[in-house]
Amino acid sequence: MTEDTLRIEATGETVGEAKWAALRELEKLHPELDKSAVQFQVVSEGERGLLGVGYAPARIVASVDFSAVHEPRAGETELAARVREILDRITSGLNLRCRIEIGEDDESLVATLSGSNLGLLIGKHGQTIDAIQYLVNAIVWRVWPDDRKEVTIDAAGYRERRRAALEALATRSAEEALASHTAVTLEPMTAVERKIVHVVLKEFGGVETSSDGTEPNRAVVITPAGG
Fold first, then answer.
1. Runs of H (alpha helix) within 123-207
2. 3.40.50.300, 3.90.850.10, 3.30.1370.50, 3.90.180.10: CATH of 162-224
3. Is the pTM above the cut of 0.70?
């Protein structure tokens, strides 16, 4: 435990009551504490006993790593603060500790998450992080309908690695379509990834692209132009 981490042990008739007791103690020490930042470890689930004999309370340890709590930064816009808050809640719900860096300009906002074990946040072929990105955009666009900024969520450099892989795949597949004079269907992708392939091959001479199928199995089809 570091000096940035606060630990409190609490008991109760049930694990739930023990957790609430710990939260009350933590709130006395830090009234502004975000409950989602609290981690719980169950030491004992307790014993109810029979007619009062053999009773033992449930015991838990509650801890808060203040170095991992993301406070709004000086000069951060209301939009950036809202995005940070949403991501804090999501990562806490997934029991992930990570750092959130936000970059914003007049047209877009990029939230980059760094830390360990972020595979759960990314998901297979980025399905989870794309879903989180969609959710964040839906929330902020509802709050600011007249001042929409595209919000991008990245984690552990995933976006750049996946973009490079998709661009290479798109080029190879277009060359294959031209050489074989037949259509090439790529693996199912999210809408975000399909857009990358469409954009890359828009400048690739001799082929046309389209999307086929229904979500979540919708895929890009690359066809020789005029074929």
1. 127-143, 158-180, 191-202
2. 3.30.1370.50
3. no
